[in-house]
Amino acid sequence: MTYEIENANYPLVERNHLNMGNPGPKGKEITVNSLYFEKGGEPFIGVMGEYHFARDKKENWKKEIAKMKAGGVTIVASYVFWIYHEEIEGNLSFKGDLDLRSFVKECQSQGLFFLLRVGPWAHGECRNGGFPDWLINKPFKLRENNKEYLKEVRRWYEAIYNEVSDLLYKDGGPIIGIQLENELVTDADHLLTLKNMAKEIGFDVPLYTVTGWNSAYGAKIPVNDTVPVFAAYTEAPWEQHTDKLPLSQHYLFNPMRNDAAVGLDIIGKVDDEGWRLPYEKYPFATCELGAGLPFSHHRRPVISGMDAYALSLVKLGSGNNLVGYYMYHGGTNKIGKLTTFQESRKTGYPNDYAILNYDFHTAITQYGEVREQYRLLNMLHLFVKDFGDKLAPMVLSESKEKPKADDDKTLRYAIRSKDDSGFLFINHYQRLLKLKDNKDVKIKAGSVTFPQFNVSGEVSFILPFNFTFEGITLEYATAQLLCKSGNTLFFAQIPGIEAKYKVKGGEELTGKPGSILGINDVRIVTLDINAARFLRKIDEKIYIGNGADIYEVSGEIKSIEEESFSYKEWTGNGFVERSVNVNTNKATAKIYPVDEPFKSKYPEELCYESDRKLTWKKIEVSSSEGFIDIDEEFDVAQIYADKEMVADAFYCGEKWRVPAAMLYKKECYIVMAELKDDFYREF
Fold first, then answer.
1. 554 CB contacts (<8 Å, ≥6 apart)?
2. What's the number of CA atoms in the CB half-sphere (13 Å) around residue 217?
3. Fewest 10 Å CB contacts: which of 35, 271, 321, 583?
């Protein structure tokens, strides 16, 4: 079947229309226009990954940030949870695992930008949304303009500023943006007050962002003073039922930015008060693409690698010009001196989340391992880092067919283009629905007609057309463009599609996996999808792990798997093999039943909503290296080391992996609550 799609009309780009802060040093300015962001006057697409420093140990930050960098993240984002830093009124702390300054400086040392989410209210599945209990109990309203509340907020903002005052972008630091509040969608005046307060204190940064989602009309924000950022989750563990949700609309190409909106046909209307967010004033920017999701006690959707990858690819194809993930790196909640810090129904919220576990089932686990999301998403991150300057000014052209989420037959495709050059996006994936194969697909994008191919299996990919590089114009390629190095382009072969390359004025060439084609002075390397999953570009050097997830820390190439490994390094002419031997003494574990040794410290977590039978087992580990697997079924489980709870989890159908170092040379027990059929599950 032949599909035809014309280039879109290119809009007028509005500049200097938003009241942002100091753009930064000359030649490196970060600015925003109505279509995209710029760095040093060039279009720029950042990859932003959320990682909460306070939900990890300070000793881990260096290597975990290095893993994020290897995964293609260019901007680290983090909430600063007020309750973590001032649980007791007047006792402010930024020490140890709360050392915001050291965390930001570590991002800087590894060449990454930082987006500071100052709140004061954050949410993040944190107790009271991050507000300390003492603030909740004050005799005045919160999250609005009143003198008493604003006085407390000013003190909080000043405390944060004192930690990072010399780390702003204008002074050569990594902090390029401030997010004000979170999910406050009906009070533009208060948001503007918070922004003005932050600037008065000294937070003078290139970008000020706020939550953009709400109804189809969009959040009510200070339209000239902030940039709205959006979310896209494919499930909703916060829904108050245990039924299966309708199929997600996020696997369809369209320009809709608003997660809560119903359909494109109502986006142009206004609400009863005449409000409509002027979307056309801002680039499409995301801060919460769901690379994973937390498990609430009553809903436990498991997000897969393809769930996350296809979601991000579709949003990129739909015009996204800031690729932001929540969460990208999981974490572990702290327990305070007075209370636990997780969101729960006991604290007035609609969900019960784990006391400690904030793994989020995302790209990097709470303990620093990686999931398939990490590998697949990196293919997109490589692409936007090296070719974001081309993609950012391009605009969406939708397909004529307009399939629905439950349509398993119609091809899902779109292009982003400018001046007859662009990228074809195809998504053949719908979470929880198997799509039928599309045979003999032939697509005309602008003046270019791609050769016929089949789209089958679970695949999502990006193909360039009229792509200019080092003096040649690639009329089309039927392989996914990954990255570049010097005069070499790297592509991934799409499963089931032959990799073909056609240069204007030349013959069509076929690339086999592992081959290097020469076209004039340009070389094209074709990789199979498995090699592409392990390709990493770190400080302009290209590596391919041989089944290993490699990263670099302190100038040393390491494997996330912490075992002996090998990899290929690109020399400019080809790959050379290298190997690294790692001496390991990985732990083994003995897990056996015992009588209840003591009372659980947090029995309410084990028996949500009903009494459940509890089973205790003792855990003995042989060394501190590696992980142990808990291959048990349970509703909720807690692990105690020397009578202190060190880990917990809601069962999701997978083995539970726990670091051996957490348990080594300690008296350890696991207590498991009986599994019942009283929650939403996909396993």
1. 62
2. 12
3. 583
- Kindly report, residue by residue over 573-611, the tens digit of the pLDDT: 999 999 999 999 999 999 999 999 999 999 999 998 788
DSSP codes, 404-472:
-TT-SSS--EEEEEETTEEEEEEEE-BTTBPPPPEEEEEEEETTEEPPPEEE-SSEEEEEEEEEEETTE
Rounded CA-CA distance 25/176 in Å is 11
What's the distance, CA 445 to chain centroid?
Answer: 30
Which residue blocks in 341-420 are alpha helix, DSSP H?
372-391
| Angle value at C-alpha 313, between 243 and 568, nearest 5 degrees | 120
Pick from 518, 519, 482, 515: nearest CA to 504: 519
Q: In three state form, how does the secondary structure of 487-513 look?
A: CEEEEECCCCCCEEEEECCCCEEEECC
Domain 47-387 has CATH 3.20.20.80: yes
- Closest CA relative to residue 289, chosen from 238, 230, 344: 230
Comparing CA positions, the residue from 450, 513, 461, 479 lying closest to residue 316 is: 461
377 three-class SS? helix
- In order, the DSSP letters of 261-287 are ---GGGTTS--TTS----GGGS---EE
**71 with 364: CB under 8 angstroms?**
yes
pLDDT value of residue 666: 98
Parts of the chain belonging to CATH 3.20.20.80? 47-387
Q: At what angle do helices 372-391 and 305-317 cross, to 10 degrees?
A: 10
Q: Which tens digit of pLDDT belongs to each residue from 286-322?
A: 999 999 999 999 999 999 999 999 999 999 999 999 9
Q: What percent of the chain has pLDDT over 70?
A: 99
Q: Report helix angle 147-164 to 188-201, nearest 10.
A: 40
Confidence of residue 5 (pLDDT cuts 50, 70, 90): confident
243: left (phi over 0), alpha (psi -120 to 50) or beta: beta
pTM: 0.98
**CATH class assigned to 393-533:** mainly beta
For the chain, give every residue range classified as CATH 2.102.20.10. Answer: 393-533
Question: What is the three-class DSSP state of 39?
Answer: strand
Starting at the edge strand that comes first in sequence, how are the strands of the sheet with 30-32 ordered? Answer: 30-32, 37-39, 42-44
pLDDT in tens, 124-141: 999 999 999 999 999 999
Tell me how far apart the alpha carbons of residues 226 and 211 are, in angstroms, rounded to a whole number.
Answer: 10
